[in-house]
Design a protein that fits this description.
Blueprint lengths: L3 H5 L23 H8 L1 H22 L8 E2 L11 H10 L15 H14 L9 E4 L1 H13 L5 E6 L5 H7 L3 E6 L9 H7 L4 E7 L11 H18 L4 E5 L22 E6 H4 L8 E4 L7 H14 L7 H10 L6 H18 L11 E2 L8 H10 L2 E2 L1 E2 L9 E4 L4 H21 L4
Parallel strand pairs: 1-10, 3-4, 3-5, 5-6, 6-7
Antiparallel strand pairs: 2-8, 7-8, 9-12, 11-12
């Protein structure tokens, strides 16, 4: 029987290995690491959710509606054709200028310089192109960041609800996930709980701001307090604790609210960015990993990052994407239109009786489920042709996520179904 401390610190239970019948009963087919990844709760729930979504699409097709008649608010995928300027940037970048245009490429200096200039406008710290490396989206940046500063057996602390793939990225790196619930209902960082979760094995604290799924943008007071906690704990442990700051939405902030990066409050922060959100093209994999200017360990870190990108399977964006970055940096989805969709749906849901905060950033809403069983409620919406994500997928039962990348027409079409679903829930569980 494990004690409470071990349970809180996310130990992955050992799995019975899948056996190869031709090699004998003792020979596993797959590695223990792959078994641990598949056993991770968010990973299992994600694939179960995808299975159910496919079933809903098939049912819609059987009913003669077709999957395109479903109102899909699940993933941050595009629902309209890409911006013409985006397509033109890729088309131009695909035309070779010389015989080496499609040769092996690591991190292209012109892409780094353009990315650094853009980052400086959002997080003014004096960034230059040499402070960052281009990666295969935010996935690649987070993967490399964790491995650059943490060894197998080290602990990675992150807040619930999380982006649902932090756990498997940590497990794949041989790290131990440590999960700390956010403070509800505002979903601020629980600084006391984070401090209590730190042990001598803690090496990384992941901060996701603006937060997916809650839409919370952490204010300077919280980031300052977190920095003080990590400085004290680093000194106590005799080894540095790093922040991995996951910031793919740091340009998607509403109401003129300022964005603040943990890099502005804690020097030992690795900043991860993805272009897939701002450009709404997640299938075109490009992002970067940035090390704050002037960090004494910067040269050593950059050497480690370069090596890990090669050793991890050449984790550099392809040549065309890197050539396009200077043009892509001039583009963005329409933030005002996204904010209008947020306002329309938040207002409609509140009028129906949903408990939902207005997100400060990202392109998600995070309403409370009107019934305790969020999966059952999400299923009731699916029966009406509206697809959303349950809070259990984010290890936070009782909530659900709505993605605002759907079209305005889809939002209008879905509003009556959201109303019917909550009315049904109220009838099934009338107030006492």
């Amino acid at each position: 029987m494990k004690d409470d401390h071990e349970q809180d610190h996310g130990q992955v239970p050992e799995q019975d290995p899948v056996r190869d019948p031709e090699a004998g009963a003792s020979a596993p087919v797959v590695s223990r690491r792959s078994q641990q990844i598949q056993a991770a709760a968010p990973f299992r729930m994600l694939f179960e959710f995808l299975r159910r979504r496919a079933a809903a699409e098939a049912e819609a097709d059987d009913q003669g509606r077709g999957e395109h008649d479903l109102l899909d608010f699940t993933f941050g995928d595009p629902h309209e054709l890409a911006m013409p300027a985006y397509v033109e940037a890729l088309r131009s970048a695909a035309v070779p200028r010389d015989e080496q245009w499609f040769a092996y490429m690591q991190s292209e200096q012109a892409a780094q310089d353009a990315a650094a200039a853009s980052l400086e406008r959002v997080v003014p710290l004096g960034w230059t192109g040499d402070d960052l490396r281009m990666t295969t989206g935010g996935f690649g940046a987070i993967t490399v960041a964790m491995k650059a500063v943490a060894d197998p057996g080290d602990e990675v602390v992150y807040t619930l609800p999380p982006w649902f793939l932090y756990e498997i990225l940590a497990v794949e790196a041989g790290l131990v996930p440590v999960k700390v619930p956010a403070l509800q209902p505002g979903f601020d960082l629980d600084l006391d709980a984070i401090a209590a979760a730190i042990t001598p094995r803690t090496r990384v604290v992941v901060v996701n701001t603006p937060n997916n799924p809650s839409g919370r943008v952490y204010p300077p007071a919280q980031l300052t307090a977190l920095a003080a906690i990590l400085e004290e704990a680093s000194a106590r442990n005799g080894r540095r604790i790093w922040i991995v700051s996951d910031e793919p939405y740091n340009r998607i902030v509403f109401d003129g609210k300022p964005f603040h990066s943990p890099t502005q409050f804690y020097r030992h922060t690795l900043l991860c960015y993805s272009y897939g959100k701002t450009l709404l093209a997640p299938g075109q994999r490009v992002g970067y990993l940035a090390v704050p200017p002037g960090l004494p360990e910067a040269d050593t870190l950059m050497g480690a990052i370069d090596s890990l990108q090669v050793a991890g399977g050449w984790l550099f964006p392809n040549a065309v994407m890197q050539y396009a970055v200077p043009d892509l940096e001039r583009l963005s989805i329409d933030i005002d239109a996204l904010q209008s969709k947020r306002d329309r749906l938040v207002g409609a849901l509140r009028e129906m009786g949903y408990d939902v905060a207005s997100p400060e950033g990202t392109f998600y809403l995070w309403p409370r489920s009107p019934v305790p069983d969020d999966e059952a409620f999400v299923a009731s919406l699916a029966r009406r042709g509206v697809l959303v994500m349950p809070g259990t997928l984010f290890e936070t039962p009782g909530w659900f996520r709505i993605c605002l990348t759907a079209t305005p027409a889809s939002i209008e079409a879905a509003i009556p179904h959201f109303r019917a679903a909550i009315n049904e829930a109220k009838r099934a569980d009338p107030p006492s």
